[in-house]
Amino acid sequence: MNSSTRYLSLLSALVVLVKGNPVPSALAELMTSGWTSGEELGTDGETGAPPKWEKMIKMLVHEVTTLRNQQFVEEFQKPVEEISSFSQHQVPSTPPHLSKTLCSTSNKEACLQEISRGLQVYQLLLQHVKAEYPQSTLLPSVTHQTTVLIGLVKDQMKVAEVVEDLSASERKRVLGEVSTGTEWERKTSVHAILRELRNFLVDTKRALRRMGKRGKDFQ
């Protein structure tokens, strides 16, 4: 897809949103991640079947976004259009966005370690989501797919550099940061976890695709 086609596509999306399309915050999603350019779920004009990790991340992004929106509406009794008003709520233990500098260089192993480590933290934080939002029918799939993605990332790393699993003390610290507090604080922490997990997945997809373009294929 050339630049003019991309511009027209984005312009069309703007027109649809102005006319009141029911898809909430569609354009806002384009700017939720440090690497987001509006193409995080596209194929950049590539042909052929996408690799397994790409299909998995696309599914995960969709499911996490849906889960985040459902939890927001049900727990806070607000329309999804007001979701940006909760952007100030943060969870200290959520991994930061992937380092754009690190994952844009040729240091594949360092980038994969950062991805693996971050996904392991989110895998643990999803336990808190389950405890606070047990009625979700999407969460089991999100948790399973996250575990599978961690395995795919580790399979691409050198054996000596595979990131170790979180220690018992680390797990206790991470869960301790979100399991205490008022009911409101625990609910907002669930929202923040899902929001930041989505951002991390978008960053991960872009990082892995950059590796592929540099000849460091990630299947």
List segments where confidence is low: pLDDT < 50 over at least 5 consecutive residues.
1-47
Mean pLDDT: 77
The backbone outline, from C-alpha atoms, is globular
Radius of gyration, taken over Cα atoms and rounded to an integer in Å: 18 Å
Keywords: Acute phase, Signal
Signal peptide: 1-20
GO cellular component, one term: extracellular space
Family: Belongs to the IL-6 superfamily.
Tell me what you see in this structure.
With about 220 residues, the protein is an all-alpha fold. The chain has a single domain (about 50-215), classed as Growth Hormone, Chain: A (Up-down Bundle). It is built from six helices and no strands. The chain has helices at about 5-20, 50-75, 110-130, 140-155, 170-180, 185-215. Helix 2 (about 50-75) runs antiparallel to helix 4 (about 140-155), helix 2 (about 50-75) packs antiparallel against helix 6 (about 185-215) and helix 3 (about 110-130) runs antiparallel to helix 4. The longest helix has about 30 residues, at about 185-215. Mean pLDDT is about 75; it is low at about 1-45.
